[in-house]
C-alpha cells in the first residue's frame, strides 16, 4: 500500500507539471516529488512487514537502500535547480519554453528510476533502465547547444547498443530457467531460487551479455566513452543526478545478476571477469584524471574510477566486501553530487565553458570563497580522508581484496595515489590563478537554493563517515543477504 502511494504521488506531480506554466510552481512540484520519494522510502524501511509480502513490486533491503540514495540526490538537485535553472533562463542559456520539458523530464526520470529499482521482473527492469537513458539524454540536450546534443546522442548510442546485449542475456536467462522447471520465468526471486539447478553454461552466457549492457550504464571501461562528455556538458543539476543516482541503476543490475551467478559453479569465472574490468576501469580513469584541465570532466572521470572500485567489491564476492561496496555507493553519490553542484556555481561565475573551450578560473577565494571551500572538502572526501565515508569503504574493500591477492590492494593504492595527485594538482592550479586589476569578472551571488543542497550533502557525507546510524549495519548486512551472497542477520 505504501509503495502504491508513490505511484499516486508521481502521477499527480506529473499531471500538474503538464498543465502548469509558471517556473516557480514547476520547480516546487519537482522538489515535492523528490522529498515525497524520500519520505515514502523511509516509511517502507521502517515498515518491513508492509513489503515482505508485496506481490506487485520487488521490495527488499537492496533496492530500498539504493532508492534512498536516489531520493536524496534528486531532492538535492531539485532544490538546487530552483535558483540554478532560473539563472540559465536569465542568461539565455535555457529557453523559457524548455522549462516545462526540463522539470517534467526530471520528475519522469525519478519515476522510471524508482520503477526500475522496484521491478520484480528482469525484463521490466531492463525496459525502465532503458527509459532512464532516454530521459537522461533529453535532460543533457535541454540547453539545445550542439555540444550537448552530440553528447546526448553519444550517450544514447553507446548505452542503448550495449543494452541490446543485455536483452540477449535475458533471453538466455529465461531459457535456463525454462529448462530447469519446465516453465520460463524472469522474476528475480524465482531466478535466484532456481539458479543452482540451472545449466551453468547458459547462466554464464547470460551473465556475460547482461554485464555488457549494465557496464555501459555504469560507466565501466571500455563502455565508458559517453560518460565524461555527457556529465561535463549537462546542466550541473543534471550532472549530479547522472553521477549520484543513474549510474547506480547500472550497478544495481550487476549486483542482482552477480547474486544469481553466485548460486552456480561459474561464480569464480564471473568474479574474475568483474575483477579484470574493475582494475582496468580504475586504471584508465585515474590516469585520465592526470591530464584533465576541465573541472566537470575531472569529476566525471572520478565517477568512472569509483564505479570501478564498487565493481571491485562486487567481484570479491565476500559479504564484507559487498557491505562496503554498498556503503561506498552511498558515500560516493553524496560527495559527487555535491561536487557537481559546486561546479554549477563556478559555471555561473566564470561562464564555463568559455570561448576558448577551457576553464578560466581565477581569484577563486575572492570571487567564490564558498565554492572554493566546498570544492576543497569534496576533493578531500573523494581522496578518502578520514571523517568522510570513502575512507572506511576503501579500507574495508582493500582489506577484503587482500584475502584474494596482495597485488590487488597494492595496485589499487597506487591508483588512488594517482587520482589524489590529479585532484590536488587541479585544485592548486586554479588557486594559483590571479586576474589583473579590472580584468576579472564580478562576483556571482548564488541563490540560497543553490547553496543549501551542497552544504547538506557535505554534512551528510561527513556524518555518514563519523557515525554509524542505528540499524545501518544490520540493514546493509540484510541487503547483502537479499542478494543471495551473505548470511541473514
Automatic annotation (TrEMBL):
Q: How does it sit in the membrane?
A: Multi-pass membrane protein
- A GO BP term, please? ATP synthesis coupled electron transport
The NADH:quinone oxidoreductase/Mrp antiporter transmembrane domain extends over 119-412
This protein's major location comes to membrane
Q: Keywords assigned by UniProt?
A: Cell membrane, Membrane, Oxidoreductase, Transmembrane, Transmembrane helix
The record's section on InterPro entries has: ComplexI-like_HydComp, NADH_UbQ_OxRdtase, ND/Mrp_TM
- Where is this chain's protein located in or outside the cell? Cell membrane
Domain of life, source organism:
Archaea
**Chain ranges passing through the membrane:** 25-46, 66-89, 101-118, 124-143, 155-174, 202-223, 235-255, 270-290, 297-318, 324-346, 367-392, 404-428, 448-469
Can you name a GO cellular component term?
Answer: plasma membrane
- Pfam families linked: Proton_antipo_M (PF00361)
Output the Gene Ontology terms for molecular function.
NADH dehydrogenase (ubiquinone) activity; oxidoreductase activity
Protein known as: Hydrogenase membrane subunit
Amino acid at each position: 500500500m505504501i509503495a502504491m502511494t508513490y505511484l499516486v504521488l508521481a502521477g499527480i506531480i506529473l499531471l500538474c507539471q503538464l498543465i502548469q506554466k509558471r517556473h516557480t510552481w514547476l520547480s516546487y512540484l519537482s522538489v515535492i516529488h523528490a522529498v515525497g520519494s524520500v519520505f515514502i522510502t523511509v516509511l517502507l524501511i521502517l515498515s518491513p512487514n508492509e513489503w515482505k509480502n508485496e506481490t506487485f513490486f520487488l521490495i527488499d533491503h537492496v533496492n530500498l537502500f539504493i532508492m534512498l540514495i536516489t531520493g536524496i540526490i534528486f531532492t538535492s538537485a531539485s532544490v538546487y535547480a530552483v535558483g540554478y535553472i532560473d539563472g540559465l533562463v536569465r542568461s539565455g542559456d535555457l529557453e523559457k519554453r524548455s522549462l516545462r520539458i526540463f522539470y517534467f523530464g526530471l520528475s519522469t526520470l525519478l519515476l522510471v528510476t524508482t520503477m526500475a529499482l522496484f521491478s520484480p521482473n528482469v525484463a521490466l527492469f531492463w525496459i525502465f533502465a532503458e527509459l532512464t537513458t532516454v530521459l537522461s539524454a533529453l535532460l543533457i540536450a535541454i540547453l539545445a547547444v550542439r555540444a550537448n546534443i552530440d553528447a546526448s546522442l553519444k550517450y544514447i548510442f553507446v548505452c542503448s547498443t550495449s543494452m541490446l546485449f543485455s536483452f540477449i542475456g535475458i533471453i538466455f536467462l529465461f531459457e535456463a530457467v525454462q529448462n530447469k522447471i519446465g516453465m520460463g520465468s524472469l522474476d528475480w526471486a524465482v531466478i535466484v531460487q532456481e539458479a543452482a539447478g540451472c545449466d551453468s553454461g547458459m547462466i554464464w552466457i547470460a551473465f556475460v551479455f547482461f554485464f555488457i549492457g549494465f557496464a555501459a550504464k555504469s560507466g565501466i571501461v571500455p563502455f565508458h566513452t559517453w560518460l565524461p562528455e555527457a556529465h561535463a556538458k549537462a546542466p550541473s543539476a543534471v550532472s549530479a543526478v547522472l553521477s549520484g543516482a543513474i549510474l547506480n541503476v547500472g550497478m544495481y543490475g550487476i549486483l542482482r545478476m552477480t547474486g544469481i551467478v553466485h548460486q552456480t559453479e561459474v561464480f569464480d569465472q564471473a568474479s574474475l571477469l568483474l575483477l579484470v574490468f574493475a582494475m582496468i576501469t580504475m586504471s584508465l580513469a585515474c590516469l585520465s584524471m592526470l591530464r584533465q584541465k576541465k573541472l566537470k570532466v575531472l569529476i566525471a572521470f572520478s565517477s568512472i574510477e569509483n564505479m570501478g572500485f564498487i565493481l571491485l567489491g562486487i567481484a570479491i564476492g565476500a559479504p564484507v566486501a559487498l557491505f562496503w561496496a554498498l556503503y561506498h555507493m552511498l558515500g560516493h553519490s553524496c560527495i559527487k553530487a555535491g561536487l557537481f553542484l559546486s561546479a554549477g556555481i563556478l559555471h555561473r561565475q566564470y561562464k564555463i565553458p568559455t570561448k576558448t573551450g577551457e576553464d578560466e578560473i581565477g581569484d577563486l577565494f575572492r570571487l567564490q570563497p564558498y565554492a572554493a571551500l566546498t570544492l576543497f572538502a569534496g576533493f578531500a572526501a573523494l581522496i578518502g580522508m578520514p571523517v568522510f565515508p570513502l575512507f572506511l569503504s576503501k579500507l574495508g574493500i582493500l582489506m577484503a581484496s587482500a584475502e584474494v591477492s596482495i597485488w590487488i590492494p597494492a595496485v589499487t593504492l597506487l591508483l588512488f595515489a594517482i587520482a589524489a595527485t590529479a585532484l590536488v594538482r587541479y585544485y592548486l592550479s586554479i588557486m594559483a590563478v590571479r586576474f589583473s586589476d579590472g580584468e576579472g569578472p564580478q562576483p556571482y551571488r548564488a541563490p540560497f537554493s543553490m547553496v543549501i543542497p551542497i552544504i547538506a550533502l557535505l554534512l551528510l557525507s561527513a556524518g555518514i563517515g563519523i557515525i554509524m546510524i542505528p540499524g545501518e549495519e544490520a540493514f546493509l548486512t540484510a541487503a547483502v543477504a537479499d542478494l543471495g551472497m551473505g548470511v541473514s542477520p
